Amino acid sequence: MLPETPKRLDAIAPFYVMNLLARARELESQGHDVIHLEIGEPDFKTPDPVVEAGIQAMRDGNMGYTAANGIPELRQAIARFYHQTQSVTVDPNRIFITTGASGALQLAMLACLDNDDALLLTEPGYPCNRHIAEALGLATQVVDLDAKGAYLPTIDQLSARANHHTKALLLASPGNPTGSVIPTALMQEVSDLCADNHWHLIMDEIYSSLVFGGQQAKTVLSVNPGAWVVQSFSKYFQMTGWRLGWLVVPEGYEAVVSKLAQNLFLSAPTVAQYAAVAAFEPGVMDTLEQRRRLLASRRDFLVAGLESIGFPVVAAPDGAFYLYVDVSAYTDDSLAFCTEMLEQAHVAVAPGLDFGGVDARTTVRFAYTQEVDQLSVALTRMGDFIQKWSQK
After folding, report:
1. How far is 171 from 201, CA to CA, in rounded Å?
2. Does domain 7-45+284-386 have CATH number 3.90.1150.10?
3. Which CATH number describes the domain made up of 53-279?
């Protein structure tokens, strides 16, 4: 018999898509061809110059611990990136290199929230954001969003859900699973709300460079230099397994975050840091932009294909690499629906149940991280699956 686990873990639900991924791997081991549209991982390999920079770092013996906030070369490169792409000036001393975006989020939460404080956040959203807060023993206050509001919060919704325990607001732009981008005007309103209530504003911007159709995801720093910004090298920079992210901290919080980082993980992976410096070289940036445009073409192809087989896209997919789809015509159990589609059609997608919100049981997320020919095969398989499902 296992010992009793801490009660704070009771509220943490499984990440269902990972169970579906495990089952998909089992099916593949049995010889089945599974098309993976379930996990948020780019199918592109890390650009060669980044890999070579990592190899060179190992050859040069750059394998020891770094300062808790990361190597100066990388922090300076990120600061230049903000200036070049967003016309925003960020002091490199406010940039902390972390073990992925999850490490950045943990540092931000611990630096600005106490045990009796509450974190305000929206759903549907990346489930681990709430789970991390709950694992840290923090209370969470969830604002449920829906398609009628384009999965964007209103000031009234945020204000109504908050109370005297609220000390921070966490938002994402572009969002996961919806791809919704927060307009600059709304960003300003949200920033003003936080200032009026003395809340910290934590912004998840890990997909901010993956925007399409002439849209631009402005960093929150353009309207609020005192916000916390969580970023990652996993998505746009295609460095998922390198486990690297960064956190922009408000001025004055550098010492607090440094103390936390020293105690929690000493420093981010050293080789990954030296490799990431090369991610900002002009040639690599050109490659990343070419791949972003390729993702846009995949998005357009899949939107049309999904709607043709009866899967309407319910959120404007302006950013990230996801489509959020309404399956209410077929089911009110998104997990069972995704499980059955995997077993019968060998197409893996993520159930809305993972992401929360009022329509969690009738939505599904597709990641268009496959080439168009694979997306075409997936559409054919899903079309056949829907015909059989509807005849039950």
Report:
1. 8
2. yes
3. 3.40.640.10
